[in-house]
Amino acid sequence: MATCKECIYYEVCKKTRIMNSSHNYATECIDYKDYSRFVELPYSLSEGDKLKYIFTDEYNEIRIGDDWEVVTKICKDGFFVTGRINSDGTYQAGDCFYPWSAIGTEYFFTKEEAEKALKERENDE
């Protein structure tokens, strides 16, 4: 049987509703959503979002891509984008997978974040 503690709204209800610990509200709650049915992702990213990226070009220089990559799919382990720049400078079209760790290292939410990361990399060399 479902219980309030198994609901994604439990913390909110605990703070906003008067709850009697001996009563199980989950069986009659219209807002009940089972917590085990949801996955918490490390970033708020949606299909269709655009990301800036850093890559190493054919001259072995690290630079920011001229365009924005579009997020095509989201999964628990990472995300897919519309394509990728290969190390030889060629563009590979199609869905390319990146783990969540690529956010902040290869992919960025803003151009400013990408520029900051590029400067940090140049300073490290």
What does this structure look like?
The structure is a single chain. With 125 residues, the chain is an alpha+beta fold. The chain folds into 2 domains: 4-37, no CATH class; 50-124, no CATH class. Helix content is 17%, strand content 29%. Strands 1, 2, 3, 4, 5 and 6 form a 6-stranded antiparallel beta sheet that branches. The longest helix is centred in the last third of the chain and has 14 residues, at 111-124. The chain is elongated, with a radius of gyration of 21 Å.
User: Describe the biggest sheet?
Assistant: 6 strands, antiparallel
**Estimated radius of gyration:** 21 Å
Strand content: 25-35%
Distance between the termini: 59 Å
Number of helices in the DSSP assignment: 2
What structural class do helix, strand and pairing data support? alpha+beta
Helix content: 10-25%
The count of DSSP E runs of length 2 or more, i.e. the number of strands, is: 6
The helix/strand order is HEEEEEEH
Write the layout of secondary structure elements.
Blueprint: H1 10-16, E1 50-56, E2 62-64, E3 69-75, E4 78-85, E5 91-99, E6 107-108, H2 111-124
Antiparallel strand pairs: 1-2, 1-3, 1-6, 3-4, 4-5
